[in-house]
Amino acid sequence: MRSPVAPGPVSRRRFLRTSACGFGSLALHALLQQQGLAGQPPPATDSPLATRPPHFPPRARRVIFLFMKGGPSHMDLFDYKPRLARGSGEALPYSLPSTEATVGLEATRLLGPVSGFSHHGASGLFLSDLLPLTGRHADNLCLLRAMQADSPNHPVAIRQLHTGNLFDVVPSMGSWLSYGLGTENQQLPSYVTILPGEGERNFSSAFLPAIHQGTAIQDVGLTPDQAPIRNLNDPRLPREVQRRRLDLVQSMNRRQLDRLHSDQQMEGVIESFELAFRMQTETPRLVDLANESKATFDLYGIGQAPTDQFGRQCLLARRLAEAGVRFVQVTLDGWDHHSGIAGGLKNLCAQCDKPVAGLLSDLKSRGLLEDTLVLWGGEFGRTPHAQNGDGREHNQHGFSMWMAGGGVKGGITHGTTDDFGYHAVDGKVHINDLHATMLHLLGLDHERLTFEHHGRPFRLTDVAGRVVTEILA
Amino acid sequence: MNARLPILSGICLLAVMLATRSSGSAAEAARGDHASDSLWALQPIREPAVPVVRTPEWPRHEVDAFLLASLERAGLAPAPDADRHTLLRRVTFDLTGLPPTPEEIKAFLEDTAADAYPRVVDRLLASPAFGDHWARHWFDLSCYADLADIQGDVLIRDAWRYRDYVIASLNADKPLDQFVHEQIAGDLLPSATPAERREQIIATGYLAIGPWTLQNYIKGQLDADVVDHQIDRIGRTFLGQTLSCARCHDHKFDPVPISDYYALAGVFHSTRTTRYDGPGVWSAITHVPLPPLETAPGELERRRQSLEQAASRRQALQTELSSLIRSLPGATNANGLTLQQGVPANENGRLYEVAFAAAPSVWANAEQKTTAGDGLLIDILRPDGSVLASHRHQPGPWTGTNDAQQLKASAFSYTGDGSGDVRLRLTSATPASGRFGGAIDDLVIRAGPDRLFSEDFHALTPGTTRGEQADTRLTVFAGATIPGWEGSGISHSHAVDLGGGNFAVQFFSGDSTTLAAVKPAGEAQQQALARALAVQQELAAVATEIARLDALNAPELALAVHDVDSPADGPIYKRGSFLTPGTIVPRGFLTAVPASANHPIPAGTSGRLQLARWLTDPENPLTPRVLANRLWHHLFGKGLVRSVDYFGVHGEKPSHPELLDFLALRLHGEDRWSLKKSVRRLVTTRAYQMASTPNPSAAAADPDNRLLWQMPRRRLAAESIRDAMLAVSGQLDPSRGGPSLGLELPGNIAGAGGNVNPATWGGKVPESVSRRRTIYLPMKRERPQGELELLSTFDFPHPNEITGARPETTVATQALFLMNSPFVKTQARHLAERLAREEPEDEAARLRRLYLLAVNRPPDPEAAATATAFLDECTRDLTSASATAAANPRAEAWVELCHAVLGSNAFLFRE
To answer: Would you identify the CATH topology of the domain A49-221+296-471?
Structure first.
């Protein structure tokens, strides 16, 4: 076991300082001091990304979030329901909520699981046959079978999963972690999201300092010309000319600074240019998977048709996590199976299973799994009844996710849904509870990790959230 | 999970935590009961005495005396005056958001008159660029965007009218009290002309445009959230109060009881901002039609006549096409419903009446309204299939945003010819246009008082596929069958459930592919087909002409609010939840503000007008203080109260309280709410004209420069960085105003026409506005991305946030943007080309022009030498074998030099 206590402040760099709005940062510091938050607030000269001690010894030091966008069907993958299997094709034994849309549900019937299930590992976890390789890690999985969210609309539910909040512009969970703990590698952003697919609203730092914004990796080696991070380089200009231009900018800025004696913001600009130039050199190297072995490629399914892209995403996630990035998100889209779920799910699982299993194996073999929290799941699950005959509608009332690694019990299930998998019944874990638990595992008290904004403190879990102590190892 | 609060921003509950956890705050919270007694911002504004200073020759203005007095008390002295280059750059950016031109610099340097500077100020205040720049300050507070809904990119194509209203108002120096009244209650103000009325309606876009969650499927929550945001916006913007904290409980620090919040909420619940017509989850922002402006004499009549001619031509063509199509086998399947059994209603010479109910029927779309093409055709057929009588029924117009369609009774008569029984055939009158034709119900044939035939369609069998028709609350069954009627068309037509067991039959108008599928048999059919195809072509041309005329005549809409039918007081929502209404509270304003009693709300109105007047009541001390402080913030970098949006107990105290009151009194007194006069007052102070000279001892004594011993250096705002780069490179498009979304671009509208989702904008900045100032670009409800990434990179506010003071961050992504982004590279190239054009011969002159354009001063000798050396070295790099040899290395080196200057602090900052 590595030392559970994060090292103290490691950097005095000023290049990444943000001066936020004077009021906000003053209020923040006042708040930190008043509440004894986060040990000692970093001295004003420190980078806001300097490593900061957690509230209490953490069980995990980083998070890899495998975001299954669209809402994977839990009854078909993780939550086998014998009653549903028996009743497939029957009229609904329950009523549908009047507030939710009913398109395509006119003649709906129960739809039994579309895949077979088997027991896996010593724990005997009962998982879909569509995820055989993930099943080999069954004894590491902590299956949450009574997840709950508050909205059946994709964008709203996705926002809640990422930020805890349905509607307001508030920071994403990765931003909160970056803000609470800093990063362990000053050359890299603390929060990276790999191929997020769409707008920044779900990896936004909102009112937290901009440095905590998720950095999007936009290319994982599929298109040779695209920079992995926006504006990371200028492929057409000779490197010595770039350096010469940068030197000119820096000399102009330094001359001006000499005239001014001292100006923190302008010094910050000068240092930000140096960092940018280093990122330009170093990030492509980190993102470049070419030096990985054939065995590693095979482990993740890289170079094989269905798994190539997601395999690259997962391998890159491991590299970033290993390099000290605090929160890495990997997105796999396509789980929104409103019709033809049997075939659709098979395809998605074929893309997903090997890279995820590869990631878990790789983390394990490098000793990273014990202090890396891996989270797998979507914004909601799906209904036990059919939509358009052979698909399933969104279901936020009860669904499954799993965790593995840093500080959670392996080979267990927590929570149950009703006989059909429609509503969570016992051991419910709301998104806010998920967030509280994640912060707890990283050594942060979700009620104490706050940020003063517009005259009041905000937190990831709003006014809710309970640490799910039952699943802590 | 235990009992959860309903979805609400319950974060204010955390304020309790803050109060109870931190000892300092707890003490203050304990005092909060009497906060109104002690809160400085609520004290009446009194005319302060202008202080006496030890160096009376320094102040140029009373404002200077206040500042100098504080400096002297602290043993500090003001910085020397800024040089003219610096001053002109400063005031030009602060007033217009753009740099001065080399010509303007030259004129100012050569103008030795004593009033040279005030005349520059007047020139800048009179420039339209003033409104372009200062409107952005307003939009930072009012959450302007061209799209609705916090998640989607839902089109609100009329938002630009509000944007243009704000810019025009600021440029016209509309008094700020009137500006406020119009935006909160313009629709309730009297007006003299249609133009004024339009302006007043458009102004209420202030309340209508915001980060609404239009797809919130819980509509009571949506309404409560909209009202909360409106209260929050007004609270922060004008009052410097966080009123939202009182949504769930009395404010923990400030004198705002929960009853005050719901007194204001009653005003906004009595105001219609969004509407929900269902089905699906989406609401829409309220649109209000604008009264038409006067046009040239005879113009409207000419348009009407052209439209009439085109419409009658179209009808003739459609009727011809209908009959042609019916003569062609295979062409009618999609559209018809024919009664199989004959009806004995054809006695020779006898008059029959056919009565029915009918309605237009249009799917949700970006343009939902019926046109002349939406008619129904009712044919009376002889036994041989020939038409005995035909009636084309055109249902009334429907704009598609209002109520469920109504079936309206109608009737026509025909005279029998005695050739046998008749059958009925129902089809769309526009078989090939692709639109819906309409719905029909309760069809009856009468001869005198006798009812010979009736069909109410109650006996139909709904099909298996059911959907909801947007905006009409009609449940639609596809594949419905009606006993007795031929079913060939019914799978394409729909039966619609009107509720209570009542159905109607709805007709598609089909589409032209049915013609293509026709296999004509024989000469006659071949001719008919050829003619039908020709008619179809002509129809398309006529339709285009009609669309053009329709667009000219279309009612113009503004996003605007209006009072609900029955304005009323509302209840307190216990714990902030609309599901637990409590005591009703009378509508009103903040009880802690003395002027609140001056503005009783008359029965039958929402109270918005009274709210607007209360905000600008001379006895209300908050609004002038907050607004005067905002002006200071924009010109001096930080407010006298740096927490510009919050003047409450936990906000900052003013650094110069007397000065703030002095300015607040001038704002609504002497300056009569004139923004330009107030701005002029501030920028003509000596303090504003100070240099940003370093002063180590002052910096040690007052590191935050609260006493203003120098003019703070500031990075340009994001939009000014972009606008200035375009201006300097010569690419800035000076055109202004009008729509910004570029809907004419292919792919720029998505999701239109479904019955669930509204139309969304595809996100492409149209070429027509892409080089305009930032204020005229389309704004999404997220941090600007893609082509506009510059903005969010440099701290442009999120359009959903009320941001009186933007953060100024310094992060590596900004450096990456300046080094590598296509935007900066492109502008550097344009700038280099411009310089080569303007100074083709002399490189020294070219360098001088580069500096004057970009940093607004000539290069000093050292800078010139460095730049020249760079050009030489860079030229060598670009010529050398290792590089990809450039065609014209010297020209490329100039591009690199321009790029460097555009990325330098000298360009990015103003002193």
So the answer is: Alkaline Phosphatase, subunit A (3.40.720)
